[in-house]
Amino acid sequence: MSGRHLAFPFRIGSDGRSATPESLDAHIRGEILQLLLSNSGERPFLPGFGGNLRRLVFQGNNAVTAGLTKAGISQALANWLGHRVRVLSLDVVNDEATLAIDLTYQVIDSGEQRRLRFERGGGV
Fold first, then answer.
1. Could you tell me the domains of the chain?
2. Distance, CA of 55 to chain centre
């Protein structure tokens, strides 16, 4: 990794300084989580930054929501992290009361492949 990066979530290390990520893969995973869990307009100096996944809590669970979610995630990853990751597969599936998002990506600098899964259930 070039430069000093902050760990996500932010924490203080054993040396009393801000902690850094353990590896490039951990740093990029944190960047993806920050991007997808941020809402557009949430960051004052980057108003377009965000994948808006937290807004799904207030959306209906249907094929339209799944399609819009997939398009939004694809666009956010390409715009903000396209220089860091290559999306290998992105599946957004609504099944009964659950919306599941499976992302498989490759870290461009290391060639490592990683997978993230987000799931929202609609149970009571």
1. 24-121 (3.10.450.40)
2. 14
